[in-house]
Amino acid sequence: MGPTTGAPVERREGRAKVTGTARYAVDYAPPGAAHAWVVPATIARGRVVSLDTTAALALPGVLAVLTPDAAPRLGDQDDPTLAVLQDFRVPHHGWPVALAVAETLEAARAAAEAVTVGYESEPHEVTFTAGDPAAYRPREANGGHPADRQQGDAEGRFAAAPVRVDVSYEVPPLHNHPMEPHAATAIWQDGHLTVFDSCQGSDAVRDALAALFGLPEERVRVVAEHVGGGFGSKGTTRPHVVLAAMAAQHTGRPVKLALTRRQLTELVGHRAPTRHRIRLGAMTDGSLVCVDHEVITHTSRVKEFVEQAAVPARVMYASESSRTAHRVVALDVPTPSWMRAPGETPGMYALESAVDELACALGMDPIALRARIEPSVEPDSGRPFSSRHLLECLREGAARFGWDGRDPRPGIRRSGRWLSGTGVAAATYPVLVSPSRATATAHPDGLHVVRVNATDIGTGARTVLAQIAADALGVGVESVRTEIGATGLPRAPLAGGSAGTASWGWAVHEACRELARQLAGRTGPLPPEGLTATADTEGTADRDSRYARHAFGAHFAEAAVDADTGEIRVRRLLGVYAAGRILNARTARSQFIGGMTMGLGMALTEAGPMDPAFGAFTGSDLAGYHVPCHADVPAIEAHWIEEDDPHVNPMGSKGIGEIGIVGTAAAIGNAVHHATGIRLRELPLTPDRLRS
Q1: 658 flagged as catalytic
Q2: Contacts of 78 (CB under 8 A, 6+ apart)
Q3: What number of other Cβ atoms are within 10 A of residue 592's Cβ?
Q4: Edge-to-edge strands of the sheet including 183-189?
């Protein structure tokens, strides 16, 4: 790669965002636009037996109230969470039972509140226990991972191990809460549907809408010009865009719809709660003879989703035997879905906490223990790693953090009423790549235009793709324009799984290399329309690799605990990552810090538990669901090591959006234990749990 790649180039859309000129999904204002508001179910399970819309329709400015007996019929689609207003069943609290449409947002909200709904409730269940008899083994976990994996005699080796750790951890339901809520503006015109949607991939939304409304794909256009965060919750088509399109079709008017914070918790996925049992068996020198990680979680009765939280244990450490298993209970809850680093985040919290407990049991330094159990190949598959520099991250982080000389004894560092301690945890995230298409055009005036239907969800994708293109073309980045964020551009996968830049960038790199070859062999001026090259990485990017491809990292935390109140303050967070070639130092650091901040919230403040009586999430807005504020976030350091990995993609890059969160909560929990001598095994780490 050339000199542009890796440089801290400012993101191209930055000025538009801070000045308010960047347009998000409901910033579009087509003439005659109306507004819609969801009427959510207030029971956890049952049926709607009556719907009185008389008072709502009598309000000024109200255009319609869509109900299951009057809403447009939808076609077949693979995702049952999108079958909204098609019947009167209520599968969970918050399920849409009607939709009010009016001239103004205020009138739509008033109309929704004026709809009277009668229900026939059925008994519901929204919580599970560790030994729940209704738990079953799913066919697979998220991402196509086998639900269970076993190597050797894990049970026997654990029983015979001289040093054993048998511990359980709990992670509560968590919510994504992007700054921009899920929102859409839908327009029907001459049998064509145009939607401006807050999503992580407009091609996938187009596919879903075409199937639902019985349209050829070429008659559906989806635009996602700017997206204010997603964290996985916008990775699949969500009900809001379907409802907006239904309302626009029914009324013949453009319709805007934005979900409320409370509706986000019930309609767009959440991180399901997980209960982990981890058993580690070791010899007295620290070598592992058994790793056993079992997870139980919940899914909805609408659609099965099982977070692959035991999968990281298949990747991380060498052991003579291992067992990893997932169990799931179907409940009357909203359907869970992706949340930043699904699987790795809750799974590594439990695993890295347990490894710290094993280090304490062995009397070993936690970094020395991880070095002792470092594998030479991926434990699960036996494949060589394309690159694995976890130990280098741990050592670099230890030097920067000042780990050497740490007194391992817990509960002895005190200043006034504050106890302090330090903790460490490892992180991993797989390298994922999907096929993508792209075009690159050289114009006579020296402009180079790259077109790919990537989605920039706040990561700086426009900028990084321009850098990749500039280096492949051998031109300055200022001469490259990127066109992204709308169907009709070359088809591309969604922004998710830390795979966006790797997937889109591969296609952009190939298109620009081909364009450079054409330009090098050409004499004379370019045609007025320019010269275009295309690329499609299908069959290349998705080719099986003989390598196990992962990014790795190390997290360090210093925590202070008030000995009187149990208040926890994180004073320092430091992360060091091995994530291939860093394509933009500025946006990469921002991504790492963002992930670590999200992990800080997971550790200390965030929880969205279920109210068993009403079947609803509690604390389902930003007043009750506490994401970290500025006062909670210490100075965070993010660093990386130079890593050359030729086996991942032509840029040598790995995903960076998710690995920042993976080890943060465990590092903080380990630091709290070091400060107090108390081992908390349930998140978040709150004062009441320390005091109990």
Answers
A1: yes
A2: none
A3: 26
A4: 62-66, 96-102, 34-40, 255-258, 183-189, 192-197, 220-223
Query: What is the reported pTM?
Result: 0.97
240 φ/ψ angles, rounded to the nearest 5 degrees: -60, -40
Q: Which of 46, 37, 36 is nearest to 118 (CA)?
A: 46
- pLDDT per 10-residue tile (average), the chain, 692 residues: 86 94 96 98 98 98 97 94 98 98 98 98 95 95 97 98 98 97 98 98 98 98 97 97 98 98 97 98 98 98 98 98 98 98 98 98 98 98 98 98 96 97 98 97 98 96 97 97 98 96 97 97 93 98 97 98 97 98 97 97 96 94 93 94 96 96 98 98 96 80
* CA of residue 536 relative to chain centroid, distance: 26
pLDDT tens digit sequence for 369-395:
999 999 999 999 999 999 999 999 999
**Alpha helices by DSSP H, 533-634:** 585-604
Q: Of 455, 470, 485, 463, whose CA–CA distance to 515 is shortest?
A: 470
> Percent of the chain beyond pLDDT 90?
97
Phi-psi region of 110 (alpha: psi -120 to 50; beta: other; left: phi over 0): alpha
Burial of 395 (0-12, 13-18, 19+ CB in 10 A): middle
Q: Of 558, 606, 643, 658, which one is the catalytic site residue?
A: 658
Strand locations in 152-260, DSSP E? 163-171, 183-189, 192-197, 220-223, 255-258
* Single-letter amino acid, residue 210: A
First to last CA, the chain: 56
At 305, list the tokens: 């989703």
Cβ-Cβ contacts under 8 Å for 517 (sequence gap 6 or more) = none
Beta-carbon neighbour count of residue 32 at 10 Å?
12
- Measured distance CA(591)–CA(617) in Å, rounded: 29
Tell me which amino acid residue 201 is. Answer: G
Residues 403 and 423: their CA atoms lie apart, in Å, by 9
Of 445, 514, 517, give the one whose Cα is nearest residue 481: 445
Spatial separation of the C-alpha atoms in residues 91 and 99, rounded to whole Å:
17
Q: Give yes or no for a contact between 574 and 397, defined as CB atoms under 8 angstroms apart.
A: yes
Give me the amino acid identity at 231.
F
- 8 Å CB contact between 676 and 411: yes
d(CA 473, CA 238): 38
Tokens linked to 484: 């992204």
Structure tokens at 265: 């918790």
Q: What angle do CA 503, 506, 507 make, to 5 degrees?
A: 95
Using CA atoms, how far apart are residues 404 and 385, in angstroms rounded to an integer?
A: 29
Distance between CA 597 and CA 660 in Å, rounded? 8
What is the H or E stretch that residue 145 is in? strand 145-146
CA–CA distance, 524 with 24 (Å, rounded to integer) = 43
pLDDT of residue 92: 98
Q: Residue 531 corresponds to which tokens in the numbers above?
A: 């010269």
Handedness of CA 472, 473, 474, 475 (dihedral sign): negative
**Burial of 69 from C-beta contacts in 10 A (0-12 / 13-18 / 19+):** exposed
Nearest of 44, 46, 48 to residue 121 by alpha carbon? 46
Phi and psi at 607, nearest 5°, equal -165, 135
Provide the strand spans (E) within 452-549: 480-483, 531-536
- Distance (Å, whole) CA 452 – CA 492: 7
